Amino acid sequence: MDASTNPAVINATDGDLVPTPDDRGSPKTRNLLGFGLLGLCNNLAYVVMLSAAHDILKKQGAENRTLSDSATENASLPQHNSSGPYDCNPVSTAAVLLADILPTVLIKISAPFFIHKVPYGLRVLVCVASAAVSFLLVSFSGSVWMSLMGVVFASVSSGLGELSFLSIMVFFSWHVLNGWGFGTGAAGVGGALLYSLFTQVGLSPQVTLLTMLVFPVVMALSYFLCLEFPTSFPQFREGGGLSAGSERQPLMIEDVEEEEGPGQEPKYSGVLTFKEKLLVLKELLRFIVPLGLVYFAEYFINQGLLELLYFPDFFLSHAEQYRWYQVLYQVGVLVSRSSLCCIKIRKIWLLVCLQVANAVLLFLSVYWQLLPSAWAVFAIVSYEGLLGGAAYINTFHLIHEEMGDRQKEFAMAAASVGDSLGIALSAAAAFPVHRYFCSL
């Protein structure tokens, strides 16, 4: 039986029709728009915090250290290195990245094993509240630690939102992944571009961040008013998997014909057990590892190297150069995350090799100052964004395509740890690199 033409699965126990993920029909514009807006709002706080990283640390880093901390830091690392070849903040922007990603990693590692007990609607409300709190804390912060706490709330919102919305997709047409990819890519461009433009025209970082409070509101409206949910979707009930509302459901459509004979029970039924989830997780390693390596390389560039690629004779200041590096990187991400309808890439390891080559090239460029101007960096980071976005969207498309119906909801959520884990490791690696170059 062809799964693409079958709108429902016959329950093996009672013969009733059990609603299955709405991936049998044509995509609906309303749902594409809804997932696009959810992707935009979910990732925007995360991106804005990274774009503001240089300003957060430069403004508050020197003001809020104790005298003893200052003495210790000044002995090993210049507060503002103007005599050496690098113009450095006393703390690497990787500090903001680490605060922005560690809560996400912890959520993505643990949540897939229990989050199905929390209704999707409640998860979205937590995401909305956390995003709003993040903007308010950073806006009114009087210390680095308060700013970093705001960044942590942005991370909670982004991490919980990503794994939840990726799980929700399995109830819809697979085409909504295009909307999500475009939205998350647009969040990168929109967050970095809006922050850069608003601060460029004279708005303070505080006012700029306060204007971003509109996006948590848009997230709530997009989820509760825009999406058209299929009947199989467990909106305010426990997100108990594709078989929510049904006691048993076969793993694949073909299993119905093979196993629904007299006296036979389906091989798989109900919500995945802990042991089954571990088996799925083991199978997901072939997706998680390459995705993590791609993101390790690109965020090692973004938060470990880009701050050090400063060209004093360029028409933009150091802070402005850093912001526009982030904008152009996000433009590349937007283009590639929106490319699924045009091109699909199955060889993710090729993207890994190209991204690692990018990181090596820029590391050598920092060490020997090989690049002639910021224009060369603009081109490289745009290409870097293309590779990263392509790795992300094609990885989740492959998971959606290759995993069984019953495993998809868990698999989409669990695999999202790959990019976050790579980002966290890159932040840890960026600290010694920043310290080494800034001590020269």
TrEMBL record:
The keyword Ligase does not apply. This is Battenin. GO terms for biological process: lysosome organization; regulation of intracellular pH. GO terms for cellular component: endomembrane system; lysosomal membrane. The lineage of its organism: Eukaryota, Metazoa, Chordata, Craniata, Vertebrata. The gene is CLN3. It comes from the Eukaryota. It is a multi-pass membrane protein. The keyword Transport applies. InterPro entries: Battenin_disease_Cln3 (IPR003492), Battenin_disease_Cln3_subgr (IPR018460), MFS_trans_sf (IPR036259). Residues 1-25 are annotated as: Disordered. Keywords: Lysosome, Membrane, Transmembrane, Transmembrane helix, Transport. The chain crosses the membrane at residues 32-53, 120-138, 144-172, 179-201, 207-227, 348-368, 374-398, 410-431. SUPFAM superfamilies: MFS general substrate transporter (SSF103473). It is found in: Endomembrane system; Lysosome membrane.
